[in-house]
């Protein structure tokens, strides 16, 4: 179903321009707020891209098929290719009058199974999924040891090395509070062009990423962020279908009382919340913490890394599959 839907994605310039023009017309009377969950594996991120399947483009197509109106939904942020969401928020304006529950059901019928609308409601005047946000919650999950279930593999990063969880937690606590996170921001060869594009997005109403200006993150190129939560947890899990349903369900047993399902593994979950996040920031933090867990870096180095404001000082960027946007705060 995803492949079929992708053939009518906003992969052409004309479709994208039409959506932007409709968004800017000022004739829409109702602002809608959607909460979305999606499996990002098959998408090239949130933002519309020519010839590629994206969450934003797929959602825009679904809205158009239900209402007949061309809109460009504004997300709370741009998730990268392969990144998932359980609580992404999108907003847009519509002239059509439609009951919220009916709208939600109709969108879910029009969308591929990889995207679900969890709720749909009319928002107050002036609401914007990104500009109105005051914070976000992300989780990064690592499957460690054992045999990873194919029902879980799309939503975790795999790690075979021994990890020191105590050291990882010590490193995680070091970023609490307000810091300049330049060392954990993506190093983009075309950063100047990307920042210019994001500023243009703001001017035309397409919120950009967390590197651009909004009331929760401050001015463009300001890499200072405030982190409220930064912690690791662990829980045992077996490679069973039920492990995905409960996400972190523990070992199961057969009638004899013996554990079933193969070698036990564990899920290590990093939860972080703050007033904003830079491009790749959570994945770069996770990659650095993994290096600490492997004893390739010391937890006590976190202060030096933050103060250095140099991406080369931090660890590698962790895989996209382990990252999930859990919630947007307003």
Overview of the structural elements:
The protein is of the alpha+beta class. Helices cover 27% and strands 25% of the residues. It has helices at 2-6, 13-24, 55-67, 100-110, 165-173, 191-204, 241-245, 281-293, 302-308; strands at 30-38, 74-75, 84-94, 115-122, 135-144, 157-159, 177-180, 224-237, 252-253, 259-260, 265-274, 323-329. β2 and β3 form a beta hairpin. The longest helix has 14 residues, at 191-204. The protein is globular and about 55 Å long. It starts with a helix and ends with a strand. 42% of the residues are buried.
Please specify the SSE layout and strand pairing.
Blueprint: H1 2-6, H2 13-24, E1 30-38, H3 55-67, E2 74-75, E3 84-94, H4 100-110, E4 115-122, E5 135-144, E6 157-159, H5 165-173, E7 177-180, H6 191-204, E8 224-237, H7 241-245, E9 252-253, E10 259-260, E11 265-274, H8 281-293, H9 302-308, E12 323-329
Parallel strand pairs: 3-12, 5-6
Antiparallel strand pairs: 1-3, 1-4, 2-3, 5-11, 5-12, 7-8, 8-11, 9-10
- At CATH level 2, the architecture of the largest domain is 2-Layer Sandwich
Low-pLDDT stretches are 1-24, 200-220, 242-261
CATH class of the largest domain: Alpha Beta
**First CA to last CA: what distance?**
33 Å
Q: Examine the coordinates and then state which fold CATH places here, giving the name of the CATH topology of the largest domain.
A: Alpha-Beta Plaits
Number of helices: 9
Q: What is the string of helix and strand elements? A: HHEHEEHEEEHEHEHEEEHHE
The quaternary state of the protein chains shown equals single chain
Shape, principal axes of CA atoms:
globular
Structural class estimated from helices and strands: alpha+beta
What is the number of E strands?
12
Helix content: 25-40%
């Amino acid at each position: 179903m995803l492949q079929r839907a992708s053939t009518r994605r906003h992969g052409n310039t004309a479709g994208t321009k039409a959506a932007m023009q409709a968004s800017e017309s000022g004739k829409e009377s109702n602002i809608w707020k959607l909460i979305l969950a999606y499996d990002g594996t098959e998408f090239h991120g949130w933002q519309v891209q020519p010839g590629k399947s994206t969450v934003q483009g797929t959602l825009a197509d679904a809205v158009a098929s239900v209402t007949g109106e061309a809109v460009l939904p504004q997300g709370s942020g741009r998730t990268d290719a392969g990144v998932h969401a359980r609580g992404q928020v999108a907003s847009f304006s519509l002239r059509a009058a439609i009951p919220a529950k009916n709208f939600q059901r109709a969108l879910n019928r029009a969308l591929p199974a990889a995207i679900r609308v969890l709720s749909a409601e009319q928002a107050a005047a002036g609401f914007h999924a990104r500009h109105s946000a005051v914070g976000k919650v992300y989780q990064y999950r690592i499957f460690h040891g054992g045999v990873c279930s194919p029902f879980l593999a799309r939503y975790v990063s795999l790690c075979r090395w021994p990890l020191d969880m105590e050291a990882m937690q010590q490193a995680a606590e070091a970023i609490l509070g307000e810091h300049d996170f330049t060392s954990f921001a993506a190093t983009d060869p075309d950063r100047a062009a990307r920042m210019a594009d994001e500023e243009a997005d703001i001017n035309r109403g397409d919120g950009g990423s967390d590197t651009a200006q909004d009331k929760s993150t401050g001015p463009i190129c300001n890499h200072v962020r405030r982190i409220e939560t930064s912690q690791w947890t662990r829980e045992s899990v077996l490679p069973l279908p039920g492990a995905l349903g409960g996400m972190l369900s523990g070992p199961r047993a057969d009638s004899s009382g013996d554990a079933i399902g193969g070698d036990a593994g564990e899920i290590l979950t990093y939860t972080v919340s703050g007033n904003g996040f830079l491009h790749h920031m959570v994945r770069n933090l996770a990659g650095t913490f993994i290096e600490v867990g492997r004893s390739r870096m010391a937890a006590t180095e976190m202060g030096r890394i933050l103060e250095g404001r140099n991406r080369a000082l931090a660890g590698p960027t962790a895989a996209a599959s382990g990252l999930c946007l859990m919630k947007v705060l307003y």
